[in-house]
Write a structure and sequence with these properties.
Blueprint: E1 2-3, E2 9-14, E3 20-25, H1 27-44, H2 64-78, H3 89-101, H4 106-113, H5 118-124, H6 129-138, H7 141-148
Antiparallel strand pairs: 1-2, 2-3
């Protein structure tokens, strides 16, 4: 976590191939992380800025395999079906779809995900059947059709 002089807070993310990028955190996330860091320090003592942000209850770095195990456990306990693929990776997919649904431009989502090629981002934001149905139901053409509809004859 790095706090900039302008008040922005950045988190360093290490992705595939050890590629690093700094992503901004919204104030609400900063507040949650600050609270988490206070709890970590109370439990494990002072931490170095280079330490991993997320750790296990033992204080060891939370690695992808352990995160998948935790998420799969939560899915099982919740009684919901697990989608194919890595469970934790589904959060990334859901976050990308949520951003697109909220109107965030795809190139901005591409930057957040760390994709060099926009085609890769497209994999995360393919429309679902529900997205397509919602788009049809939100179409302004529906109002025109309602206004020009011919009443059914008897």
């Amino acid at each position: 976590i790095r706090r900039e002089p302008d008040g922005e807070t950045l988190v360093r993310v290490i992705g595939k191939g050890d590629k690093q990028r700094n992503l901004p955190l919204p104030p609400e996330a900063v507040d949650a992380v600050d609270l988490y860091l206070v709890e970590l320090e109370a439990r494990f003592g002072a931490r170095d800025a280079a330490d991993s942000l997320f750790v296990l209850t033992s204080g060891k770095q939370l690695r992808p395999g352990a995160l998948n195990h935790l998420v799969e456990t939560w899915i099982r306990l919740a009684g919901v079906p697990k989608q194919p693929g890595e469970a934790a990776h589904a959060f990334r997919h859901s976050a990308a779809k949520g951003l697109i649904r909220s109107g965030v431009p795809v190139p901005a989502v591409q930057g957040l995900l760390g994709h060099e090629d926009l085609k890769t981002t497209g994999i995360y934001v393919k429309a679902t059947a529900a997205d397509t149905r919602d788009a049809v139901l939100l179409s302004p053409a529906r109002e025109v059709l309602r206004e020009t509809a011919v009443p059914p004859s008897d």
